Amino acid sequence: RVCWNDPFRSSCCSEGNTAGAGLTMPLGRSPHTPQLLLVLVVVVLVVHSTSSPRPCPGPCLCFPASDLVDCRSRGLDRVPPGLPHGTWLLDLSGNRVKEVRPNSFAGLWSLKILLMSNNSIFALHPQSLSSQQFLERLDLSFNRLRWLPHDFSRSLSSLRELRLDHNLLQHLDAASLADSDNLRKLDLSYNRILSVDAHAFGSLSRLRVLGLQGNRLNALPDGLLTGQQALEALRLGHNNISVIEADALAPLRALTLLDLRGNRLVHVKFKTLLKLRTAGTHLQMSGNPWTCDCELQRVFGKIQHVRHLRVQDYADIVCHAPPQQSGASLASMDSQLCMAETVSVLVITVTVALAVVGALAKAERNRKSKQAVSEVDSEDK
Length: 381
Description:
The protein is of the alpha/beta class. 20% of the residues lie in helices and 17% in strands. Among the domains are: 3-50, no CATH class; 60-189, Ribonuclease Inhibitor (Leucine-rich repeat, LRR (right-handed beta-alpha superhelix)). It is built from four helices and 23 strands. Helix 3 crosses helix 4 (336-380).
């Protein structure tokens, strides 16, 4: 008795020993053995043909069982054609790719992770990522990108992590990230960003980590972080920020880390930081050219009494001005700045008071002198 099974199943509909893939023969000698052997050969060939490996670009290494394609450091100057359609992870890092052209990844509907760091990419053409609705992680770090196309995120609705650090970006347009509302991590650090459109981050309501350190920003304006209620870490270190506008930090309700190290802050207003109404936020503020006066000391003194705010590097905050305080630690001065200022104010007040009293006394003497002269003149007449 012969049993024809599904070639991908191990069970059989008849009892006996298994003689091949999907074929079972009863024990003992059969007059139809040659025919059965022929059938067995055909079945084996069919199974072999259906399980043969899918096409894989020559320089790359494909893992069909896990749908991974490894094209790392293969000297590629373009995205190779013929990538398996079921690819889940594609690693093209460490190559010489200069451009990502339209439809470079056409047909890769299952792609979730795309790694293209350490190439020479200077341009992402429109529709270059148009078929990547399920992409969750995209790494374009350490390239030469100067701009992002307006439709960059149009098809990236599932994207959760985007790395664009160590490129040459100078401006971030509002449209570039408009459709990435599922994004959790965005790294734009170590570019040359001078300006960011007011609503560039407006649609990123689920963003948790935003890296902007190592750029050329000179201010943190009101409205830039509107909609960032979920943001937990904001890294702005090593920019040129000299101004934090009054309501710039107000939208941040979940922030746990604010990095402002290595900027150009001279003063900061206590009310600006107090608008961080969070459960607990660590502030990093060293490496700025602080002007250490009584007002600055009062600001940091007040911060230390706010339960949910903690200046993590307070001991490392060093004065830049005035000259007599340059190089000194703000923490080491305790209340000296305010005491010195108070003494100065008292000295000035006393000096002014004495001057006023002296002026009044002189005026009174002059008045009396004039009155005496007037009386003498009256008697002579």
